Amino acid sequence: MAFGENQIDGYAEGEEPLVFYHRRGSFRENEPEHLRNLAEGKAMPKRGFLRVLVNSKGNRMIFVVMVLCFVFLGGYKIFARGANEGSVGGINCKLSAFSFQDAVYASLSLKQSAADKKKDSLPSQQPLTVLFAAVTEDGTELARWQEDALFLKGEGGEQFVRATFEVGAARILCVVQADEGTAELSTAVERK
Fold it and tell me: Residue 21: pLDDT band by 50, 70, 90 thresholds?
């Protein structure tokens, strides 16, 4: 099959014809090693979620970033205090409120902090001033209630200060004042 005077079978003079080696012998010698291993079945792709996550450098970096994010979010969830928790004068305070029938009940839980229990030179009584305020959804104050309380340190258990308000309050605000400082707490009223 000659197309011109200087061509024999479609190739110019002195040029060797192309030879295709279909998956045999010398064709595999010219391939990169990872392709050769893949074609021969020596290096099968890794299976399994964790094996794939640590297979390459990029996957390992993504895996480490995911783990760090989960650790950070979990630590934040465990150690972060909400708006209804605070501490004043070595006393941990926690505010809760719920509505039942025709009233809203607010409760302030007082408990001695673990670090404060270890100190020896603490007074056995801590005077507190507790101010509760019932607030509607738009921020209008419905009622206030104030009480002077005496926290007894070393009792071991929780002590409570409670208040009752009329229905209509959406949030309860609480300010706890002690000699060492002030804690401002707020919580939404749970409907029961």
Answer: low
CA distance 84 to 99: 17
- What is the Cα–Cα distance from 64 to 54, expressed in whole angstroms? 9
Tokens of 188: 């939404």
Residue written as token pair 């990872």: 34
Please give the full DSSP string across 113-180, using - where no structure is assigned: -HHHHH-SS--SEEEEEEEEEEE-TTS-EEEEEEEEEEEETT--S-EEEEEEEETT-SEEEEEEEETT
d(CA 119, CA 116): 5
Which residue intervals of 80-126 are DSSP H helices? 114-118
Against a cut of 0.90, is the pTM above it? no
